[in-house]
Amino acid sequence: MPGGRLTEQDRKDIAGGLSQGLGYAEIARTLNRPTSTVSREVKRNGGPGRYRPDLAHRATVHRARRRRPSRPGTATGPADATSHAIVGRLATLFAETGMPRTAASVLACLYTTDSGSLVATELAALLRVSPATISDAVRYLEAQELIARERDSPRRRDRYIIDEDVWVRATLASARQNLALAEEARNGAAALGVSTAAGNRLTEMSQFLVHVGLDMVRSTERWRELRNQADEPPQCQDLSSHRTT
């Protein structure tokens, strides 16, 4: 199947397919594209019910304008002491969130490459681990929607990529997990009896997770709106005063 980025017409065809109730695989066949390309495009831009081809194309153009191309001859991964130190600090902080250490290191490596993509052999060499260890790490990161996988056709190998929407997808995945937990807690409360101590505890858990999950969804939607409206991403607030001990 052909490579290259989706065109504006491709995105209109995707929207047309979604409106007809077609699945990702059917839409991909009409475009002669991998199913993963179509599914990632839709998920990255609001999901099946919210996909807008004009906004999706504008967001892609915006990302391409902000992305700096790699200079010829530069290394694909962190090559100096400063880059290694950044990778180490990022990996440590990722790991402190509960992420497995190797997965944290892989994510840090991808973040510190100009291209935002590496293959397993490059990651194994950078981290000095076996390819099998890399495979375990990327499976975890893919499950969390923190990275995506693309086929490097000329060399017949998988390439792992990261882009500006990574935290949008990861946040939405976390929101879905919160809402699934909330539903299970609500069902548990109903089974045990909402008037019991355990039922009351589960009800409060459910209400909190729904509240947080919906806030996460609204925040990602607002972020997309702000990013599409401006040439630069919204400025981050200083959160140091909000850290918990």
Helix percent reads 55-70%
Rg (CA only):
21 Å
- Beta-strand portion reads 5-15%
By CATH reckoning, the class of the largest domain would read: Mainly Alpha
Identify the CATH architecture of the largest domain: Orthogonal Bundle
Note the total helix count.
Answer: 10
- Low-pLDDT runs of 5+ residues are 67-78, 236-245
Biggest sheet strand line-up: 1-3-2
Total strands: the figure is 3
Structural class: mainly alpha
Report mean pLDDT, rounded to a whole number.
82
Structure explained in plain terms:
The protein is mainly alpha-helical and 245 residues long. It folds into 3 domains: 8-66, no CATH class; 81-161, Orthogonal Bundle (Arc Repressor Mutant, subunit A), CATH 1.10.10; 166-234. 62% of the residues lie in helices and 5% in strands. It contains 10 helices and 3 strands. It has helices at 8-19, 24-31, 35-44, 53-66, 81-96, 101-111, 120-127, 131-143, 166-192, 197-229, and strands at 117-119, 148-152, 157-161. The chain has a 3-stranded antiparallel sheet. A hairpin with a 4-residue loop joins strand 2 (148-152) and strand 3 (157-161). Helix 5 crosses helix 6 (101-111) and helix 9 (166-192) packs antiparallel against helix 10 (197-229). The longest helix has 33 residues, at 197-229. The model is unreliable at 67-78 and 236-245 (pLDDT under 50).
